[in-house]
Amino acid sequence: MPFVPVLHAEWIKIRTLRSLLGALAAVLVVTGAFSAVTAARADRSDPLYSVFFGVSLGQVAAVVFGALAVSGEYRGGALRLTLAAAPDRTRWFAAKVVAVALPVLAVGLLTGLATLAVGSATAGLTWAQGLRGVVGCALYLTLMALLAAGLAGVLRSGVGTLGLLIPFLLIVSFVVGDLASGAAGYLPDRAGQLALHSAPEGPLGPWTGLAVTALWAGAALGAGAWCVRRRDA
Amino acid sequence: MAGPGAHRRAVDGLTLTVRPGRVTGFLGPNGAGKSTTMRLVLGLDRPTSGTATLDGHPYAGLRDPLRRVGALLDARAAHGSRTAHDHLLALAVSNRLPATRVGEVLERTGLAPVARRRVRTFSLGMRQRLGIAAALLGDPEVILLDEPANGLDPEGIVWVRTLLRGLAAQGRTVLVSSHLMGETAAFADHLVVLGRGRLLADTPVRDFIDARVRPRVRVRSTDADALGTLLARHGHEGERAADGTWTVRHAHVEELGRLLAGEGLPVLELAAEEASLEEAYLDLTAGEAEFTAQPQEV
Predict the structure, then answer these.
(1) Which positions in chain A touch B78 (Cβ < 8 Å)?
(2) Chain A closest CA to B189's CA: distance in Å?
(3) ipTM value of the model?
(4) Whole-angstrom Cα distance, residue B147 to residue B145?
(5) pLDDT per position as a tens digit, A51-110
(6) Residue contact A80–B42, C-beta within 8 A
(7) pLDDT (tens digit, 9 = 90+) per residue, B201-246?
(8) A contacts of B134 (beta carbons < 8 Å)
(9) Do B203 and B234 belong to one domain?
(10) Keywords of this protein's UniProt record, alphabetized (chain A) (predicted)?
(11) Are B152 and B71 found together in one domain?
């Protein structure tokens, strides 16, 4: 069973759901809007994060996109129909993952460029910082969407996945991050967002931080793939 | 093959061959294992032992499986926010079927006028039609439909019957599950009856009827008592209703008609009763139903 037709089918499934297109649009709008607000009052000590602050809220939309793209398969026996058409489960899940990753990566790049265009006028960033911000923003959002997609494959529920991830991103990570800065730096959102800071502190650099987030996302996707393979559909 | 289940086996020791060119009705009470069997065939559930193959090959090894097997498992499988057209388009593309097939199956299932409507606005009957459209998409030679008549109006049931008969006449293999005997007898040529995961019958519909449906005759005369005496004298087992009508088991109208004429007893009514197909089925599956209501004291 070839990969490309399955990938094409998964892309059709994504582009034909308004909720998913809405979530992608929200990544751009939310990130851009909050960044515009904070960039206007740029923090001299960390100008890059002032410009890209909106990502910490825009990521919620990316997580919603990743979770819903997968959890739609667990409603009303949809997965049975999907796997009847594409019985190689590993290949199907890989197609789903690519179909989730590519749109978020594209929207993430667009979001990064738009955010930079809005904020750079006041923040005074170097070229290198700006480039790192744009690429980091796109990669970070993509990895968070994939983390959500993998978790949704394990939990088989959009509500369950979002109920776990959104409070984690908006509350737990902030609280835990302030209490124990050592290990908390390796949490997926903390580590990945290092790419959006002017001068990251601690053991991780901007790219190694993203690599840590990639490990989290990879682990979630691996667990998701395992569940898709092993469980009855 | 034997089916999964941590606490009980859904399907046990089931060996089944479904032949092309006829509609096979797959019958059994709720929980008998019909849906599980279909999921096992499609590789969606794993058998604990045994194999399910199509032409000797496991389903998962098929290239473009929709071109070989079309299945309706659950009418709710289409996402409510997607249109009928987009739902089918994604399926068609995944199996490299031309996009024109989508229009063709929508036309064939009568959904063409609502192709651009979201599935959530569909009635259960329309969703069943969409599920059947998906099963027909790849023009497959094997068609598995799980309770396709659920939610269909009488017109829809006639349509399904015509469709299934037509598909079988083209030489396709058609397996249709149902928990209703009357419905199944209407469109199937062959019957497979399942109870608690075991095979209870695998027989042509006609043979099933001949073997299990005991003929019954309803007879009424001007003199109910004389009729009763006559029946008893000739060894017929009859039941008398309040209005004097006798119902005679294991009898034929030809036989009783001659008997009454010979005795000169005026006949007011003499009719064969064929309505006991459902009873024959209930009789077969009695004690095999997974969920039966306790008889209630009145």
Answers:
(1) 76, 78, 81
(2) 27
(3) 0.92
(4) 6
(5) 899 999 999 999 999 999 999 999 888 999 999 999 999 999 999 999 999 999 999 999
(6) yes
(7) 899 988 887 777 777 888 888 888 888 888 888 888 888 888 888 8
(8) 81
(9) no
(10) Membrane, Transmembrane, Transmembrane helix
(11) yes
Check whether B298 has a pLDDT greater than 50: no
> Distance between CA B90 and CA B112 in Å, rounded?
17
Q: Yes or no: say if A14 and A20 are a contact pair by the CB < 8 Å rule.
A: yes
pLDDT of residue B215: 74
User: What is the H or E stretch that residue A229 is in?
Assistant: helix A206-230
Provide the pLDDT for residue B276.
54
Residues of A with CB under 8 A from a CB of B: 1-2, 5-6, 8-10, 12-13, 16-19, 72, 75-78, 80-81, 83-88, 232-233
Helix-, strand-, coil-residue percentages of chain B, each rounded to 5: 40, 20, 40
- Domain holding A30, by residue range, is 3-230
pLDDT tens column, A101-128 = 999 999 999 999 999 988 877 767 888 9
Number of domains in chain A: 1
Considering the domain architecture, whether residues B94 and B56 belong to the same structural domain is answered as yes
Output the pLDDT for position A45.
79
Strand order of the sheet with strand B142-146? B69-72, B142-146, B173-178, B23-27, B190-195, B198-204
Q: Which two tokens stand for residue B237?
A: 């087992």
